[in-house]
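S.,

Sequence below, as promised.
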Amino acid sequence: MFQVLPPGGGHVTCGRESKVIVRVFPQIRMASVLTLPLPRESIHYEAVVNSARAYLRRRDFLTYATQLVPEPIGSETWTLAWGYMRQFDDMLDSAAINKTQAMNLLEDERVVVDRFFSGDFTTPPRSPIRHKWLSQFFDNERKFYDGEALKVVKDLYESAWGDVERRGVILSEREMKDLLYKKARSFFKLYFILSDFDLGGYIDEFSYLFGMGLGMLDDILDLAEDYSAGYVNITREEMEELGVDLDPEDEDFLKRIIDAGYLTYKSKKIMSLLISARQLSRHVRSRYVRSFLLRLSEVFAGPILEGRFIPGQKYFFRGGRLANMLLPKNESLAYKIGHRLMSIFLRYPQLSSFVFEP
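The prediction came back faster than expected:
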């Protein structure tokens, strides 16, 4: 359970799935009686956005901090989308459900998502909190982005099907790249669109470089966890290049893959993408946005350059723990303070390695 303190007192208490109780002021009794989507100036809208912010904050600061960088509308709209994606992705990737159950979950979710795409943004009483986030996201997208983000959202949704379908299957290099393109590249493009950053006309290039780099990085750091859930994060061509012929059912599958030099092989590809992103950042005029791109590349390169590029490790924002302690529990106020702090935090490199100079 978590609490969100909106301005004026009260709280929003949200369970992981379906039960949502909103107590902001005495006249608001239950979230289930609110009609969504909500006007941006309403306290109900603020409570919905802040429930998503609180969910992201509970995971880790880097997940949460992405919404502190954009201006208010971008922050709110991204928060709603990111909260939904993060929660639903966790449900699909859980080792507690099998492939059939994950497919059934996607089928059920399709009914809701298709309705939102058709323009019906209403959510029935007792809807899961993630559906309320998604409904409000679609409404914001219609009001402030005029459909610009919808194609990217469709690609992200399709990638969820591809991700579930690959459980227990070794993909080809082309299949894996297509999946990462739809998933990780689209993730960054959605973020850049909603944040309304001036990327000097290079939004597709930055989305590709960061998306593919992060996608491969996650596949390595989550190698063991994904494997336990039935996901194989190495392609057939990569196995051939490493000179190994293994079955995912082999007891020592992961150990033999790592012993064959897979981590070094992938680290070179990831670093190439991140270095290209840093070089491209020279074309970005905004110092604030350019600093954000550089810090992001450093956060992702950290596990490799600091000798932590092994399954189970994490990448993180240095200073994040301190920043999280400084920010109040009131998520509206936390955004205002955090947004200002970001301009300070982004001035300082996350790495001191001379190998990674911009």
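The CA atoms of residues 19 and 126 lie 7 Å apart.

Coffee later?
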